Amino acid sequence: MIELTHFIGGRRVKGASGRFAEGFEPMTGEAISRVPLAAKAEVRAAVENAAAAQPAWVAAGPQRRARVLTKFIDLVARDMGPLAELLAREHGKTIADARGDIQRGLEVVEFATGVAHLMKGEFTDAAAPGLDIYSMRQPLGVVAGITPFNFPAMIPMWKFGPAIACGNAFVLKPSERDPGVPLRLAELMIEAGLPAGVLNVVNGDKEAVDAILDDPDVKAVGFVGSTPVAAYIYTRGAAAGKRMQCFGGSKNHMIVMPDADMNQAVDALVGAGYGSAGERCMAISVVAPVGEATANELVKRLIPRVEGLKIGPSTDATADYGPLVTKAHLDKVKAYVELGVKEGAKLLVDGRDFKLQGYENGFYMGGCLFDDVKPHMRIYREEIFGPVLSVARTATYAEALALASNHEYGNGVAIFTRDGDAARDFASKVQAGMVGINVPIPVPLAYYTFGGWKRSMFGDLNQLGPDAVRFYTKTKTVTSRWPSGVKDGASFVIPTLS
């Protein structure tokens, strides 16, 4: 069994708290690692290293910072194979999906190499006689990220890439379920030329999270996870005076209009609903077909596709998806399926008893498909985060629009249609932060911002794109006048242009 470490001050550091969590290989169910759970003192050591390294890092200038990130991109590409294998082993997603996880993170780092342009301030010459005004964006100092298990490469890079590019130092607290890749990414940053202390990784649980939220030297915290935890972290961090950016749960709907290309819609649903075993915050978990004929045709086509899903170990290149991340999460998802049956939804495909020969102890589950799911049911209202798709039938477009808009989560939503007017109306009116038109997983590219509405997001600024630069910097405005031609004497009146 491997004993993992923290990464503080540019090197791996053994855990000193005496507390550990077991890390499992989901495809076999075997314990493969011991993960140290940081105490407050270890978090403090990471923050102190970050604070000591940050002034020299910002003084290096944006172009030199970009060079380090560019080298890091090359190193991750060099090590893509072993990184993807490690990620798949710890998380359970297929190796192909793990490569996608890493690549989507790298795309944000690529964007971050150009943030010098977005950090440029404004300048007004002669705003008033003899008066110049200009602004500048400056880093916050030490910032932190608390990231989830489902994207152990992508989301850490979404956080530390822009933050470090802007001149901040960073403390990362990844999920204790799969921290191996974040630790390797930190080592590759050092290999790329990042000064020791600019990026630190501390493993831990709630004690480490609270230590980050309470530390006075941490100026901002970004989080991705469940809504209850997001609300807690946002509240505690904001009360401590920090800038907060917390992304929570989702219940992403896909509207299927009567004129939709049904083959395209079914392909999209199967991939977006069951890819990565449904463990994605942008997974489609509810499909709302409009009209009985649409619903009947959709369900008829979905049943054999869900029954035919190939579930396999992460190393199986032909598998559609792999195991869930832990035994506890597998049990939770199965309990939701049982709840849906009790609530009266029709379970058309039941994957709970799936077993994979040779991997009987792995955390596998077949795809599940519900029909006639109603808005009052918990399986509709709550995030399941597993390979479970719910069909919520609607009679009209207006009803489908209202269904998606009225849910307490507002992360992502999609519509499949050939009608440009309906698509335009839907994009304008639906109450969600990210919209796909014939695109089932509407995750924007790195130069646009990513973020949901309502209880899917707590805070004012999204991640990615220009919002990432705004989140990790503060604006300073300078009003200057030089002595030549200035009259002596004090003025007790507020300055105006007149």
Structural class: alpha/beta
Q: Can you tell me the residue ranges where pLDDT is under 50 for at least 5 consecutive residues?
A: none
Query: Helix count?
Result: 16
Number of domains: 2
Instruction: Please name the fourth-level CATH homologous superfamily of the largest domain.
Output: Aldehyde Dehydrogenase, Chain A, domain 1
**What is the mean pLDDT?**
96
Radius of gyration: 25 Å
Indicate the percent of residues in helices. 25-40%
Work out the oligomeric state of the chains in this entry.
Answer: single chain
Strand order of the largest sheet: 15-16-17-14-13-19-20
Shape: globular
Q: How many angstroms does the end-to-end distance come to?
A: 75 Å
| Major beta sheet summary | 7 strands, mixed
What is the number of strand segments? Answer: 23
Name of the CATH class of the largest domain: Alpha Beta
**What name does CATH use for the topology of the largest domain?**
Aldehyde Dehydrogenase, Chain A, domain 1
The CATH architecture of the largest domain can be given as 3-Layer(aba) Sandwich
Instruction: Give the DSSP E fraction (strand runs of 2 or more residues).
Output: 15-25%
